[in-house]
Every structure is written in structure tokens, then in C-alpha cells.
TrEMBL record:
Gene3D superfamilies: Periplasmic binding protein-like II (3.40.190.10)
Matches recorded under InterPro entries: Bact_solute-bd_prot1, SBP
PROSITE patterns per UniProt: PROKAR_LIPOPROTEIN (PS51257)
Keyword annotations: Signal
SUPFAM superfamilies linked: Periplasmic binding protein-like II
Protein name per Swiss-Prot or TrEMBL: Extracellular solute-binding protein
Top-level taxon of origin: Bacteria
Extent of the signal sequence: 1-22
Pfam families assigned: SBP_bac_1
Length: 453
């Protein structure tokens, strides 16, 4: 069957990325029920109960695991940190390819779920407690962890987007937070013409950010449902996407925005030094920026946030960048207990409060989003602004989700290449969209998918 071919090819390609982790395996971290319980990084206070192994990377996960274990009399969590980002995904892929060695529950970013689901790595949670917690999260939160009709993750946090900006720059150059992209361009030109800094940064190494911008146009870059025997729709040459990329290409060509790679020391130095008037990012950004040293010196007390500019203010579209979930792996010895952990860990009030109060996560649990304490919180990074109420909660509530693709990592790499071409002037936005479309269609067909309109 075509689906089996897709699974086989995808797994073979993914194995190459995962082999690097094999030499560091060492057997720690579990895989299948109690198998790795002796390697826990947390204490298990009720050792007579069954144990579910968990791989997760958030800084407060030991406290989260302790909170769960103390409150639970049916199952205990054995938590291991196998790293974040690339190291974590290499470790997961190694276990998937080997058919053993995975933890029962793993933390993954939402956009990674389809690439593991297509390999049969994750369990559909619809019949494993999903209905009991369905109302705890929004439509958009569930859409992000869905693949076709299945639910393959328990939402934890997200990244509703806003526009972080420097109040000192805005005040000096007499601009106000733009509400539309037309106003954004006008403000950028006004500031630059007066000798001011770049208004923003359009980084080639941020394909997830640009994908969110695609969705804000109303376009649907991908549709994918595994129930349709490996069919995938790719719509990256949608005119709305072309117009958006041409818009940013124009800002770059007129030297209104920078093109420096983000999440680098050089970029952070520029943020601190006032090289950029805005930082278009997500609700997790204040924690990231503070951790990198932003807002502690000469730039302390100058930051505020506002809603993202819109193409059509009469029909605003909320977008999201980032967010994680707990997925139950197909190697779990007891999927029901594993699902209980996936839905229950990082769901208690103490863990959620610690997460957002220390700006580790932006929780998606509606009990938190609706709470006066969360909405009225005066964010220190924003000089006491009630950023959740002003910007991030409305964006989270309005967000309807994205459709991620099982060829997501190739897509991000290909998009990064096209964004670099836009930034160096060798391609227009429209040309980049056409090239990206042709590249992704060809790659998808090579992997055994049927590309449909």
C-alpha cells in the first residue's frame, strides 16, 4: 500500500539524522513502562505504583514531576531530560527507527508531531482520556496536536504572537504601534528616514515564524490527512503567500528591516544595543530575552508589547509560533497509564503557576487563560504592562490552529534557503514561493506521497 511506502521511506531518511545519538544512548531514560525507572532524575515517592517514563526538557520539569507524583495514587512519573531541540529529536528518532528504547511519553513541539506520526511512533489519544480534558484547551490548541482525525499530543504551552517594541525608539521618532502591515511599513520608513534603527528583523533562519506569517494571510500552505492514503496538498505558491513574501522582500530591499540570523549572540547584542525597534515574536519571548540578558542594562524598562499588525483589521487572524505537547509513544507498555501522565503532568495548578510566573511557558489551559491572576499579571519585562490581557490571551483565544506536514523538517530547510535568497536580493518573494512550491512537490513525491490540488 502507498501508506506503507510513505512510512518506510520517511523512516529510512529520518534514521540518518538519528544515528548520531546512538553512541550516547547508554540505556538511560527508560522506554516501555518501568524499563528505565532506575535512571530517573526525580524521586519516586510511591515505588509500589506502576511507573511511566517521560522525556521532557523544560527547566522546571523536576518540580512538575514531583507535583504529579505526590498527588497521584495510580501511577508515578520517571522523568529524564534527554536534551532539547535537535538532541531530543535525534534521541526520539533513534528509538523510533530501532523499534525500542523510547520513553512512554515524550515532549515534542507541535510541528514535529506529523513527522513522527507518519512513522507510527505516536498513539492516537482520542480513546485514552481526550474527552475528559477536551474542554481544557481551545480549538486551536487541539488542531496543532492533530494529524487528520487523530489526536497525537496533550497540549502544554503555545506561542500566541505579538509585536514587542522599544518605547524609547517609538517615542524618539514619533511613531505608535502599527495595527496594520501598511502602517508597519510607513512607521519603518519614517524611523529609518530619520536616521533610526531597523524597524524589525527578517531572519532566514526563522522558517516557523515565516510560516505563521503565511497563515496570517488566510492561506493554507498544507493540508494533510493520513486517512487519505498518503495524499498531501501543498499550496506554497498561493498568491497571498507571494504577496506577503514580496512585502518583506521590499522591506529588505529598501533597508527598512535587518536580515540577521536570530537566536545568536550577535542578534541579541543588537537587540540590547537598540538596532531594532521591534521584535515580532511569541508570548514566550520575554522569558527568552531575559535569559539572554535583554532588559537588564541600558535597555531596561523600555519594552512593551502590542497585537500583531494585520492585513485586514476588519478580519484579524491570530497566529502562533511554537508550543509543545506530550505524546504517548507506540512503545509504551501501558498506553492508558501513559495517556494519564500525558494529560495529567504539567496540568496541576502549582506547576502551571510556576511555569507562567517564571516565564518558562505560556500555558494553554483555559483555566489559566481565563483567570484574573494570569490576565492581570503585571509583567516585569514590560514594566508592569498587563501583556497577557492586552495581547497574548486574546491572540491565544482567537487562534484556530495550523496544519503541520510530515515533511516539515525538509520544508523548514527549503524555506530557509528561499528566505536567504530573498534577503540577498537574488529572488523576489513571488519567485521564492514558486521555487519552494516546486521543491516541496518534488520532494513529497520522492517520499511516496501523492500531491493533490
Amino acid at each position: 500500500m502507498k501508506t506503507k511506502r510513505v512510512l518506510a521511506v520517511t523512516a529510512t531518511i529520518a534514521l540518518a539524522a538519528g544515528l548520531a545519538a546512538c553512541s550516547n544512548d547508554g540505556g538511560d531514560g527508560g522506554g516501555g513502562g518501568d524499563a528505565g525507572a532506575s535512571n530517573c532524575e526525580n524521586t519516586i515517592p510511591k515505588p509500589d505504583l506502576p511507573v511511566v517514563t517521560l522525556w521532557a526538557w523544560y527547566p522546571n520539569m523536576e518540580d512538575v514531576a514531583d507535583n504529579f507524583n505526590e498527588a497521584n495514587d495510580e501511577v508515578q512519573v520517571c522523568w529524564t531530560n534527554v536534551g532539547a531541540g535537535g538532541p531530543a529529536y535525534e534521541r526520539i528518532q533513534t528509538g523510533v527507527s530501532a523499534g525500542s528504547g523510547l520513553a512512554d511519553v515524550v515532549m515534542v513541539e507541535a510541528d514535529r508531531i506529523p513527522s513522527f506520526q507518519v512513522q507510527g511512533a505516536f498513539v492516537d489519544l482520542r480513546d485514552l482520556g481526550y474527552e475528559d480534558v477536551q474542554d481544557n484547551f481551545s480549538e486551536g490548541a487541539w488542531q496543532d496536536v492533530s494529524v487528520g482525525e487523530g489526536i497525537y499530543g496533550a497540549p502544554i504551552d503555545g506561542g500566541p504572537m505579538g509585536m514587542i517594541y522599544r518605547t524609547d525608539v517609538f517615542s524618539e521618532y514619533g511613531v505608535t504601534p502599527p495595527t496594520t502591515w501598511e502602517e508597519f511599513e510607513a512607521a519603518a520608513r519614517s524611523v529609518r528616514d530619520a536616521g533610526g534603527p531597523y524597524f524589525a528583523d527578517f531572519a532566514a533562519n526563522q522558517p516557523a515564524f515565516v510560516t505563521a506569517l503565511m497563515y496570517q494571510t488566510g492561506a493554507e500552505p498544507f493540508t494533510y490527512t493520513p486517512e487519505n492514503e498518503g495524499e498531501i496538498s501543498i499550496n506554497l505558491d498561493d498568491q497571498r503567500i507571494k504577496d506577503m513574501l514580496d512585502y518583506w522582500a521590499n522591506l529588505v530591499s529598501e533597508d527598512l528591516v535587518g536580515t540577521q540570523d536570530q537566536f545568536t549572540p550577535e542578534y541579541i547584542s543588537g537587540v540590547i544595543g537598540g538596532d531594532y525597534a521591534t521584535y515580532l515574536s511569541a508570548a514566550w519571548a520575554p522569558g527568552y530575552l531575559q535569559g539572554a540578558g535583554v532588559g537588564e542594562g541600558a535597555d531596561a524598562g523600555v519594552w512593551a508589547t502590542a497585537p500583531m499588525p494585520q492585513w485586514d483589521p476588519e478580519n484579524p487572524i491570530a497566529i502562533n509560533w511554537g508550543g509543545s505537547a506530550f505524546a504517548v509513544t507506540s512503545q509504551a507498555s501501558d498506553p492508558e497509564l501513559a495517556a494519564q501522565v500525558a494529560f495529567g503532568v504539567y496540568a496541576d495548578q502549582a506547576s502551571l503557576d510556576q511555569g507562567w510566573q517564571e516565564q518558562i511557558i505560556f500555558p494553554l489551559n483555559v483555566d489559566v487563560l481565563d483567570s484574573p491572576e494570569f490576565q492581570d499579571y503585571e509583567v516585569p519585562f514590560f514594566s508592569g504592562q498587563q501583556a497577557n490581557r492586552d495581547v497574548y490571551v486574546p491572540a491565544a483565544n482567537a487562534y484556530t490552529g495550523m496544519v503541520y506536514t510530515p515533511i516539515g523538517q525538509y520544508y523548514y530547510s527549503a524555506l530557509t534557503e528561499q528566505l536567504a535568497a530573498i534577503n540577498d536580493g537574488s529572488s523576489t518573494g513571488s519567485e521564492a514561493a514558486d521555487a519552494l512550491q516546486a521543491d516541496l512537490v518534488s520532494y513529497a513525491e520522492e517520499q511516496g506521497f501523492t500531491v493533490v490540488d
